[in-house]
Amino acid sequence: MACGETTSWEASEDSLSQGLEIHHLTPFTTGRFLQDGQWSKELVEWRQVDSSKESAEAACDILSQLVNCSLKTLGLISTARPSFMDLPKSHFISALTVVFVNSKSLSSLKIDDTPVDDPSLKVLVANNSDTLKLLKMSSCPHVSPAGILCVADQCHGLRELALNYHLLSDELLLALSSEKHVRLEHLRIDVVSENPGQTHFHTLEKSSWDAFIRHSPKVNLVMYFFLYEEEFDPFFRYETPVTHLYFGRSVSKEVLGRVGMTCPRLVELVVCANGLRPLDEELIRIAERCKNLSAIGLGECEVSCSAFVEFVKMCGHRLSQLSIMEEVLIPDQKYSLEQIHWEVSKHLGRVWFPDMMPTW
């Protein structure tokens, strides 16, 4: 069902028995859907496609009227910022509380970049602790470590969790490792610094990670780092069970060397930039110690052709994804750029070419 009027919110809804999509949501179409009883579906998701405050207010108005529905999945996704964070906090919390109180069986909640706070999470837990399985709440500045700990303590069926590093604590890892809690399947941690030197990053105890991985040995631990080089000191000082590691800013040779020494479970590694110091030794160390590595991507880095061939030879066929810009590879006495294609393809067991920089 669609309407010709335009606004900046799209809503999509689906259930096991039937599906419904609503595009270009307006006050008129909103009223129709609220009146016709169609909001008892299993999935509701709003995706904001502009940054206007009015759009976010419209979404909150809809949420506040869902008093006769029992949602299983709710996602508030803003593809253009700012949005929910521009609203009065009380307005957003009031609307979200309506959903938490009336749903009773919420299993999936995605509320990134919203002013959700600790008291509203307590309402979520009080009404949906037995059913919540997924919680995605990165960039929620009003939530404290105590708030997310309350969720972990009570929602023993939680299987997927995404949050910022400042919410991660030893207590949270231990709560997720308790006998009452199911094995976590996916944990995503965003480690973000906006202003160099102004954000303090705490250190977690190795024993907490050890307890966590004993309880959930197959968990995918995904870490996104957007730090400045001088802020990496608390990280990779001891064995860390990360499986997917992404560096969105420049990272030093030293830090990548520590990754090779402390991340034996690593499956995927993406390095946006490193600078002009070759990463030969670091790549070889990662190949030696990260026996599960199957995907790697290198951006603005430098690696000698010989070291790169040796890295691929050590990893072999398990490298299902190998994305390296041609500019990363430095020819040496053993291999030219023309020769490396054949040598790498031989060790991978498939045809491989380095990525090319677009010419436009």
Automatic annotation (TrEMBL):
Family annotation (InterPro entries): LRR_dom_sf
SUPFAM superfamilies named in the record: RNI-like
Gene3D superfamilies xrefs: Ribonuclease Inhibitor
One cellular-component annotation, GO: mitochondrion
Record's protein name: F-box/LRR-repeat protein 3
Annotated source species: Python bivittatus (Burmese python)
